[in-house]
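task queued by scheduler; priority normal; single chain, no ligands, no partner chains; default sampling; output format set to structure tokens
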Amino acid sequence: MIIKKLQYLRTRIRQVPTNIPLDKLIGSHYNSDMEEVSTGHYYNIISKTAAQSPDKRLETIIMSLGTIQKTKEIADLPSASFVYHDFAVKRPNINTKYIYNYEFNDYENLSRNLNEMDLPSGLLWSYLIYFGAGYSLQNDIRSLGTAIPIPSYGPAGSGPLQVSARLGDEDNEVFDKRSQMLGAEPKKYDNNYFREYVHRNQNQSVSYNEDWQKKQQNIFVMYNQTKDIDYLPNCVTFKIYSQKDEQPLERDTISEILNETELTKFLFLHIKRNDPSVINFFDSAEEEEISLKTWDLLQWLKTDDFSEIETMSDEIVLYDRDDPDLSGLKRYLPRRFRKILALAQIRNYLKGAVLRFEDVIEKKQKCRSSVLGYKVEKSLTEGGAAIQTFYLEGRVNNFIDSQNCYDKRYFYKVSELRAVIGGEYSYKTERPQPSIGRVEIEFESTPSVKVVENHVYTFAYKISTPPLYSPDIIVANEKFVKNKVKFYVSDFIGNTVKHTEEIEKVLQSDIQFYQNLKQADFINDDNLARYFSRSNTGNFEVFRIEDKPKIYEDFADGFIGVFNNYEDFKVDQEKHAAYIDYIHHEKTYYYMFRSVDHHGNPGKPSYVFEVFLIEDADEVVLKYDAYDLYKEKEKYVTTKAFRKYIQIVPAFKHVIFKENDPDMISNIENMAPDNNTNSIGIANGESLWDYNNTNSYVKLRITSKKTGKKFDLNLRFKQTKK
């Protein structure tokens, strides 16, 4: 469920002062409402020179102005300085999903009371498959910080235990992986880690490791993740794809330099470890001032010596497997060289990237910027403290989170980490000698590259079970047994990926479950649901009433109970059952059934079955009908009241007489019954009145003055003379 996202495709976020005296006299400036205002004053640049050093650029501009007064105003301006970061943000595409792969009742109930960090992580296990042998934390990942000593192979020795795995190439939402050859459903696979995890928790005393819980609080993902999720009972996934901001498309030079020198992970660690500078910006779309966290990228590159690469107690770095820093401290000198190389490349790039005098003072041009990655903060309440933070490198990312407790709601706040190439500017003005209506401006710029954390998206999911579809039902009786009616009920098998059909409330207790379904995105705002058969159990609710229902809630007082093929409620059993009832003959009864999942939650109501038994001479005859309870259709108004009079005005072309026609009759009383000489309409054109012609008609178009709506009356006339 989306909580908040950028409602605009693009916005400009400005750190632009409104009190720069120079741009109030020439060029354009922002007023107190952050509206761009042009001065409208004429000026002409006579000459312009620039001197470039590694960290500064000095532009000398000589200009002439239209009046001596204006020249004096600019020449007398005091020296001033300001900071300029004005950049565009284009909304990234983020596709989020909560996926319920299969029913695992014991795992779901176990997870309710555990710390999220004590659950197996699909993200970390997927990384082990990507990285291969030798990752320093592989034993901690497999054993949850040594809390559960996991054997290398499953109970049957069929292969290594799996958390992150893929069964075939089918889409998880469409295809039910229970039909694979490995067994009835994934929770029973011998190599399923979750099966072993539940067994250990149910049969042993497990003491979870607080150090491992803390270690997982900040995870840095520096590789492209795969989506191998078929062994995960449930998970939240999303894919981020950020489009570039500029047209024509501009290279992400800063991001490319940091990636090529393998320094992005150090920047993300710096962001996590160091307090930001909070700067006020103006959001042009929301038309309000916002405070954003920023870090100085150039200052970080200059001051950090990169001698230490050890992670802290609350950090996990998922390196690219080709990362040169995996060799440890002996790579210190090459790492220092990569830093010097990156700094030199960025400085060289900034020479042409930092905005110049005319860009800032005259045009108010946007700064160049590029997305370095994303920060995802997971919390239990909207805006609450993060229980886990993920740093994702690059514009395109696949993200998986399986460390979610059942029946809990989680919020994910997504922020982009963007490098903005702005500048720190200063200027001074004076009159050159000799001067006739001219002024000289020295305009100095120093690159200012800020990493800006900008919130772009928040979504939330409650970890819940998807609703079951309405069951399939066959009605029968035994013709030689009185009063007996039988219902053969079976769970529907299949999934609907899209929100397709309404789900109707029957009992008051349904409300909380339906609310959970909305928070899990199984029910949308239009009350349309996505249905999955992955949690069917072969248990069913039965309702019976004697008055014909109009809505499904009419069955609320007719709830009989839950039935299956066993005496007790069971989860793993046949997905069908029979219900037998005894009723009076010659009396109508109405039945309705719902499938029940392993937590006792109901599915979509079945058809209503209208049942009637007739006792014949030597047998009992069953009559029944099945129908759905649709909402009453809207009633359409089929009549329209008019005022007492209606004005009929013919089109102009139909009011012209053929004045030169010698056969025109001036007095209608002299016209013979069969004489149609008189006509109205365009000469030699189609006649409006063509009596007794069944193929012709007069079109009367009625137009509402209030709404503009129209309808036509096609009128035919028959002329008779007596």
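post-processing summary
- The first strand starts at residue 2 and ends at 5.
- The chain has a mean pLDDT of 83.
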